[in-house]
Write a structure and sequence with these properties.
By secondary structure, the chain is of the alpha/beta class. It is globular. Helix 8 runs antiparallel to helix 9, helix 14 packs parallel to helix 20 and helix 21 crosses helix 25. The protein is built from 25 helices and 18 strands.
């Protein structure tokens, strides 16, 4: 029997021999490749944490002890070891296993964490709670944080608080930066610090890269580490940076040596205060296609051939690709255009921009707040910055958009990829909150292109705005066919025109769906016109004037219907009747975008039915 077949919970790990553990790690990797190849998911990060996760579950008594995962896409192995291996065929599928920790799935999942740099704050609060309840001597807390997450300011805010207390906590830094060698040696095995020049230089290099991308604290902390303010002994003491904060440091150690990680963690739990255990891991480990992938070591994949790692579906042209090409073209004719990414140049389409304009593309790390305010500074300096970010991650930078950019009337363009329903990544990644957040920002304008052509034109228009912020939003996935306008009425594109009883407003990617709904209503004898407002917030006078000529206005959007474009139009048209069709204000379960839209009534049939019912209520 395979070792993995005998592991149905963490307790089953306790009696495994060293040989069993090695075999188990190999079987888990094989299982991950075969399983994720069928469903898609975060493969590379999980291949890199196999031994680390095994060691965590041998040392800590989950769920009585709390294992808190930062950026929870690295929890597939955790799920396997906590009894969910049989559900992996449903990974990221409707009603299936979540791609992130899920409190509904298992008591072993403490936080549903898919936004980075937060786990340390959860750990700090939980440690305080257990201290107050008297449980801290019986229950332990371990936070697993990637080296990338340490580029986020929130992680350092938490460390600042953790360091001032004597509450026990283990912080595992899962450092999968590929420039590091995986094996450290016997000194690290005995919790000693590195004592060789090579070790110091590796650690200092890691510290320099991580901390120099950290707002405010990074450079001073690195200088302290590098010996600017310390004696000769501390120059060669890699734990100095953290111990100056009051946090004991151990490592770096080989994160793929189960016994070494386990023994280090056990000794760390005996310390009465916070301890950092620095583990070096290899993203994509054990799977050749991932190990040789220079882009991101198979960070996230779709359905692939497990033997070759190649996608099984033919590539399609995406919204992100059109944005990337359009921005490069704009920057080629406008030297003032610069780009900013928060640690996601590839997913947001800025990698190609950086290759063409390397001195005009800035990766600030996982620091969305800093990205937006840094963009404000660039705008003050005469540049027009484009901040490219997933829509869900803009939530973190609302204050900066409002007060650092809009209050100053600065020309910053924010491009929101994955706006609306993203689907299979679950509640935390749906970009459905941007329109309600941005609707109240004075002087900010939001555009929502319906296809590649309008994306190009609206990006150009946004870059021409020089007296305030602009936002461009588009969804995840394959680009739809071009949908040309019949004509333009003021600033509004008229897409279909069959009378003036009902006006359907299709917001962005929902415009083709709105046109299809218009066809259904026309066939039922309803006089209907379908438009795309292009610039959706604030609601334009052109749209308001046009809507007044109709008996009923219906707004179709893939955002929160309670506070989005439809709600803004209803306010502008009051007391005229407006039906706002969009997403219910709730956390959506994972599923395919098309299925979620259908469940929310955002299909041609659902829209037509809503319009027909409203007309019946009017007595038509």
């Amino acid at each position: 029997m395979a070792v993995i077949d005998g592991v149905n919970g963490p307790a089953d790990l306790a009696d495994l021999s060293s040989e069993d553990l090695t075999q188990l790690a190999a079987e888990i990797r094989q299982f991950l490749v075969q399983s994720v190849a069928r469903t898609g998911g975060h493969l590379g990060p999980n291949l890199g944490v196999v031994e680390l996760t095994i060691a965590l579950h041998r040392v800590f008594d989950s769920p009585r002890d709390a294992i808190l995962w930062d950026t929870g896409h690295q929890t597939y192995v955790h799920k396997i070891l906590t009894g969910r291996r049989g559900d992996f065929s449903t990974l990221r599928q409707p009603g299936g296993l979540s791609g992130y920790p899920s409190r509904a799935e298992s008591p072993h999942d403490w936080i549903e964490n898919s936004h980075a740099s937060t786990a340390l704050s959860y750990a700090d609060g939980l440690a305080k709670a257990w201290q107050l309840s008297g449980e801290s001597s019986q229950r332990r807390i371990v936070a697993v944080v990637g080296d990338g997450s340490l580029t986020g300011g929130m992680a350092w805010e938490a460390l600042n608080n953790i360091a001032t207390a004597d509450r026990p906590m283990v912080i595992v830094v899962n450092d999968n930066e590929r420039s590091y060698g995986p094996t450290i040696g016997g000194v690290a095995h005995h919790l000693a610090t590195l004592r060789t020049t090579q070790g110091y230089e590796k650690f200092l290099g890691w510290g320099r890269r991580a901390l120099n991308r950290t707002p405010v604290l990074g450079r001073p902390m690195y200088e302290a580490l590098h010996g600017v303010k310390k004696g000769v002994k501390d120059i060669v003491t890699p734990q100095g940076m953290f111990e100056d904060l009051g946090i004991k440091y151990v490592g770096p150690i080989d994160g793929h040596d189960v016994e070494l990680v386990e023994s280090t963690l056990r000794q760390a739990t005996r310390y009465p205060g916070p301890v950092i255990v620095h583990c070096i891991t290899q993203k994509g480990r054990g799977y050749a296609p991932a190990e040789t992938d220079e882009a991101d070591r198979f960070h996230g994949v779709g359905v692939i051939d497990p033997e070759t790692g190649r996608p099984t579906a033919a590539p399609t042209r995406t919204w992100t690709q059109v944005f990337s090409e359009s921005l490069i073209a704009e920057a080629s004719r406008r030297p003032d255009v610069v780009a900013i990414t928060a640690a996601m140049p590839g997913p947001t389409g800025l990698s190609d921009f950086a290759a063409v304009h390397p001195d005009r593309c800035f990766d600030v790390g996982i620091a969305e707040q800093h990205a937006v305010t840094s963009a404000a500074g660039l705008a003050m300096g005469g540049r027009h910055p484009v901040v490219a970010v997933y829509a869900t991650f803009l939530n973190r930078a609302y204050d900066q958009v409002l007060l650092d950019v809009a209050l100053h009337g600065l020309p910053v363009t924010i491009v929101l990829d994955r706006a609306g329903v993203t689907g299979d990544d679950g509640a935390s990644h749906n970009g459905m909150w941007d329109l309600p957040l941005l609707a109240g920002v004075p002087g900010l304008a939001v555009a929502a292109p319906r296809d590649g052509v309008t994306l190009q034109s609206e990006l150009s228009e946004a870059l021409d705005v020089d007296d305030g912020p602009t936002v461009l939003r588009f969804p995840k996935g394959t680009l739809p066919d071009e949908l040309p306008a019949l004509r333009r009425s003021g600033s509004v594109d008229v897409l279909a025109e069959w009378g003036n009883e009902v006006l359907i407003i299709g917001v962005g990617a929902m415009a083709p769906v709105a046109v299809d709904a218009g066809h259904l209503l026309k066939d039922e004898g309803v006089q209907v016109t379908v438009v795309d407002p292009r610039w959706v917030l604030p609601v334009s006078e052109s749209l308001v004037d046009l809507a007044r000529d109709f008996r009923l206005a219906v707004c179709v959007e893939d955002g929160n219907r309670r506070a989005g474009v439809g709600a803004a139009l209803a306010e502008a048209l009051a007391p005229g009747p407006v039906v706002a069709l969009g997403l219910r204000p709730e956390f959506l379960t994972q599923g395919r975008r098309a299925d979620i839209l259908a469940e929310q009534g955002l299909t041609p049939e659902g829209i037509a039915e809503s319009v027909s019912k409203t007309l019946v209520a009017f007595g038509t």
